[in-house]
Structure formats: structure tokens, C-alpha cells
Amino acid sequence: xxxxxxxxxxxxxxxxVFSFLFFLGSGGQTGSAIYIQIAIILAAVGFVLIFFxxxxxxxxxxxxxxxxxxxxxxxxxxxTIKCKSCGGVLAAKDVKLVxxxxxxxxxxxxxxxxxxxxxxx
Length: 121
Ligand SMILES: [Zn+2]
Known about the structure:
Helices cover 48% and strands 13% of the residues. By secondary structure, the protein is an alpha+beta fold. A hairpin with a 2-residue loop joins strand 3 (95-98) and strand 4. Zinc ion binds next to loops.
């Protein structure tokens, strides 16, 4: 129920805002304990609404099937070599074999160093 979740968040926001207003209203006056009580109740209602709204799991049948592949950036990061000096992404063409050892020349800053920790290359 996506609609219910959003509604709960909106109600929670209203509850917290009014709670804050009641809290401010109670500040200047003496004997306005009822305002503080209303503020506390509204704050509690707001937090409870947020608590339940965050626990609502979206219905897989009703919601659109958006599958975000979180693993993809990590795997891409594994397959790219970044310059240890400037952080620029190095391509395969930047890797050359010099005396049998793979040597990377950064096209951005010109740093040249041997590849020792990248077994994929
Ligand atoms: Zn570099």
C-alpha cells in the first residue's frame, strides 16, 4: 500500500509540526501544561506513524517491478583500475608489458607504476 505509506508520512509530518507549534505556544506562558501534553502526544503520534510507515513493505503485486541491482556498481568497481595518484579510471590500453611485468601509465597524470595487486589483468 504505497498510498497508505505516503499518507502516514504526511500525517506524521503534520503531527510533528503541530507538536512543535504547541510546544512553542507553551513556552511563554505559565500554567499551560495542557499545551505541553498535547505537544508530547502529537510528537508520539508522529513518531508512531513514521515507525509504522517505515515498516510497511510495499506490495510486490501492486507496485511496479523496479529491481535495482545494488551489486552492479561494486562489480564495475572491481573490474576497473583506478590511478593510485589521481584516481582516474585506467583502461586496458593503458596497461603495457614492460620486461614481462604489466605497467600502467595513467593518461591523466602520467604516473607509471607496476600492476601488482590486480590479478585480473
Ligand atoms: Zn593518474
